[in-house]
């Protein structure tokens, strides 16, 4: 027997900070909301989250559980702990098919699935990701401060990153990993006592996720405790692209293009959080989700 199709005002793909914040604002407007969350959040590799008022230092999972508890207290919210396998236009709205085979329709769609990180193919790096190989000093820098610290160059944004880190440590090394650094930038970094190490990186020595050294292809070993890098990223779900939403280039990969109200180029579809911004963290994601929820609600009144 075919499963019954359930209708909602809004479907939200992604149940972390951005998606839950959008759901909370819609629930408080007494709209029916379906939230889909498969649990594989971008920050699941980190033991602690920082910078979020009232939850500083909690694990990302505990923060998400608290957010879920807030949202599911509202009777108009349905939380589905499953992936979404397909989304297609359905009249004036959208039809979603879940990994469990259930069907849900909604008048509006909010994409809050976040991004998927792809690390450089360097032996040992995966084991350190989210622990001592990290992306953001505002998220991790306080706890990792005053240690020998490296920045693995991914692109031009890495040059900004290595200079930003001076407030957290005075022992900084830039690993160019085959990228070019202009002479004037080399002079600027030298003036700030930031060492530049050229040549491709072969591996990261580590024990239980704790960085110990970066090893170059030629065999040189550079002792370190911390390594920063900006990973290449891509949307964690394909639906922005398959539904025809415009994309734009970000410093580390494609982003979904939205206006100031988080409306995509496709009517009825909103996108929020890491999907739409090159600088990401939990506070920004939650704020974006709140605005997207408000904007989505207002569109339902038209």
Write the layout of secondary structure elements.
Elements: E1 6-13, H1 17-28, E2 33-36, H2 60-72, E3 77-80, E4 84-90, E5 93-98, E6 103-111, E7 115-118, H3 125-128, E8 133-134, H4 137-140, E9 149-152, H5 157-164, E10 172-175, H6 183-191, E11 195-197, E12 201-207, E13 210-216, E14 221-223, E15 226-228, E16 232-235, H7 239-242, E17 247-249, E18 254-256, E19 269-271, H8 282-300
Parallel strand pairs: 1-2, 1-6, 2-3, 6-19, 8-15, 9-10, 9-15, 10-11
Antiparallel strand pairs: 4-5, 5-6, 7-16, 12-13, 13-14, 17-18
Helix pairs in contact: 1-2, 1-8
How would you describe this protein?
The protein is an alpha/beta fold and 302 residues long. The protein folds into two domains: 6-117 and 232-300, FAD/NAD(P)-binding domain; 120-228, FAD/NAD(P)-binding domain, CATH 3.50.50. The chain has eight helices and 19 strands. It has helices at 17-28, 60-72, 125-128, 137-140, 157-164, 183-191, 239-242, 282-300, and strands at residues 6-13, 33-36, 77-80, 84-90, 93-98, 103-111, 115-118, 133-134, 149-152, 172-175, 195-197, 201-207, 210-216, 221-223, 226-228, 232-235, 247-249, 254-256, 269-271. Strands 1, 2, 3, 4, 5, 6 and 19 form a seven-stranded mixed β-sheet that branches. It has a five-stranded parallel β-sheet with strand order 8-15-9-10-11. Helix 1 (17-28) packs parallel to helix 8. The chain is elongated, with a radius of gyration of 21 Å.
């Amino acid at each position: 027997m075919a499963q019954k199709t359930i209708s909602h005002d809004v479907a939200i793909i992604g149940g972390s900070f951005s998606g839950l914040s959008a759901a909370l604002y819609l629930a408080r407007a007494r709209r029916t909301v379906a939230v889909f969350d498969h649990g594989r959040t971008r920050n699941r590799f980190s033991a602690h989250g920082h910078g979020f008022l009232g939850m500083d230092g909690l694990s990302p999972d505990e923060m998400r559980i608290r957010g879920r508890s807030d949202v599911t207290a509202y009777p108009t919210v349905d939380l589905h702990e499953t992936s979404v396998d397909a989304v297609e236009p359905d009249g004036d709205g959208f039809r979603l098919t879940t990994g469990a085979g259930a069907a849900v329709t909604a008048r509006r769609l909010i994409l809050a699935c976040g991004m998927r990180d792809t690390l450089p193919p360097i032996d040992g790096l995966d084991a350190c990701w989210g622990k001592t190989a990290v992306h953001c000093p505002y998220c991790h820098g306080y706890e990792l401060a005053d240690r020998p610290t490296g920045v693995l160059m991914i692109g031009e944004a890495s040059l900004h990153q290595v200079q930003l880190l001076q407030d957290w440590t005075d022992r900084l090394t830039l690993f160019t990993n085959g990228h070019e650094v202009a002479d004037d930038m080399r002079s600027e970094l030298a003036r700030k006592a930031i060492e530049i190490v050229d040549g491709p990186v072969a591996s990261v020595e580590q024990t239980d996720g704790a960085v110990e050294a970066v090893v170059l292809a030629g065999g040189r070993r550079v002792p370190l405790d911390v390594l920063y890098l900006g990973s290449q990223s891509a949307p964690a779900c394909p639906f922005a692209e398959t539904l025809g939403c415009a994309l734009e280039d970000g410093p580390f990969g494609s982003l979904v293009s939205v206006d100031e109200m988080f409306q995509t180029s496709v009517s009825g579809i909103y996108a929020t959080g890491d999907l739409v911004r090159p600088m990401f963290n939990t506070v920004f994601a939650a704020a974006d989700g709140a605005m997207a929820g408000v904007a989505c609600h207002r569109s339902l009144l038209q």
